[in-house]
Amino acid sequence: MHKPIKRILIVGGGTAGWLTAAFLAKTLGTNAPGGVSITLVESSEIGIIGVGEGTFPSIKGTLAAIGIPEALFIRECNATFKQGIQFKDWVRAPGTPGHDHYFHPFSTPSQRPGGPELLPYWLLGAAGEGRAFAEAATLQKRVADASRGPKRASDADFVGPLNYAYHFDAGRFAALLCTHAKSLGVQHTLATVERVELDAEGAIAGVVTREARTLDADLYIDCTGFRAALIGGALGSPFRNINDTLFVDRAVAVQVPYERPDTPIPSYTISTAHEAGWSWDIGLQQRRGVGYVYSSRHTDDGRAEELLRQHIGPAVEGLSPRLLKLNVGYREVQWVKNCVAVGLSGGFLEPLESSGIGLIETAAYLIGFLFPADGDTAPAAKYFNEFMKARYERIVDFVKLHYCLTQRRDTAFWRDNCDPASIPDSLKDKLAMWRCRPPHRLDFITDLEMYPPSSWQYVLHGMEYGCNITASRAAYPRMADAQREFTVIARLAEHALTDLPPHRQLVEQLCARA
Questions:
Q1: Which of 19, 271, 359, 496 has the fewest CB atoms within 10 Å of its CB?
Q2: Distances in Å between the alpha carbon of 346 and those of 43, 56, 173, 240, 341?
Q3: What is the DSSP string of 99-128?
Q4: pTM, whole model, 2 decimals?
Q5: What is the pLDDT of residues 323-357, one digit of tens each?
Q6: Cα angle vertex 494, ends 492, 495, to 5°?
Q7: Considering only CA atoms, which of 67, 465, 78 is closest in space to residue 286?
Q8: Residue 206, strand partner residues
Q9: Which domains does the chain have, with CATH numbers?
Q10: HSE (side-chain half, CA atoms, 13 Å) at 355
């Protein structure tokens, strides 16, 4: 007989711990009679990593599901809107003739009911010469380039004419989630976990804290970050390092104040490729978060900080960047007996495309919806492990797509990224098929993908991948319809520029409303 799960202990706070706590409290009815009790234990001595500060549009659904109003989130977390990512110098080295950037917007390509899919017609030239796919097929690049927001302050929470995510202060987000989770009935214990005790069957029996008290539960959730104290340290689930595919394993980051309080805020992440990695530039309300992610095999920490300082310029004078070591990879088994890993304890795939918080959301959803109330964790664990492993594999392919299609050969880092030995077979197969046809939704298994087919299309063609579909031109007879649609999109973009507010103004209006 299995013992029903009535008590959950989450070990570790930060975004992973508190987001999981809030989601499970809401999903499992912690405040209701007979609901599952949830306790989160965290040490006051262990800080949170929180440098990326970027999200994917799934975060809107998560905030709505746990009941945090959008304006409150924007105000409390110093948050701004993120309409996508601008990639600078990824295709070719600086100073080389050709486009120096491309855009990955979050809105999907326009397709009216009964209308043609636009990508094949863009490939056949229906949008005209020189128009990037992201600009031809959506309004979003024009809107973002003009420093406009993706919605109006009067729009309902989490919806707007254009799809979006957020940039925010990770520490303030964890604090907001903590307050909210406690309002949903989550118990909070400040204590430092010193060791984990196992029972006779190898499951977790309890965690011993320095304060000389043992905490026990029916289900344990490991949110202890890279330390992975429960899933790795106590239960020995192996970590699969993937630095033969994704090379970056260090970051140096700094918070940079704006020159003026009214400095326009880009509503997208700026990702700039450098000699041994890339930098992020994320605009919050009062500051920018800027960091350089790099490969320790291709440069050293001193050169990395020097490059970051050169990239930022005079604004970084007098500031001390923070060095971070990144453990890039994941555990193929993230649920063992009565313990589940969420966040960095389960894996980390570098900050490009902001998969970190999206993977926390996925894990929390799965625990909530697979929840083995009767205590028989084995079937739920099997499903969870298969699902998360497949999702990690697909994210690895998507992130590697950005690197392996570069035309850069100016440094060893970029040359090594193009080496076929570093490209997963699953990605090689996709790229081979896409030589003569565009990516299609049937290339993707919807529930396992974090990134929709449109994201793959924007990156693939932003990186100027050669896809020649002239041999199947007869399959695309609606050239005139597609040309009309591209014209309509350009016209609607002009209208959107007058209809949508400046990004900073939108953020200020929502803060005032909160």
A1: 496
A2: 20, 19, 21, 10, 5
A3: --EEEEESSPPP--TTPPPHHHHHHTTTT-
A4: 0.96
A5: 999 999 999 999 999 999 999 999 999 999 999 99
A6: 65
A7: 78
A8: 197
A9: 7-78+167-238+329-390 (3.50.50.60)
A10: 25
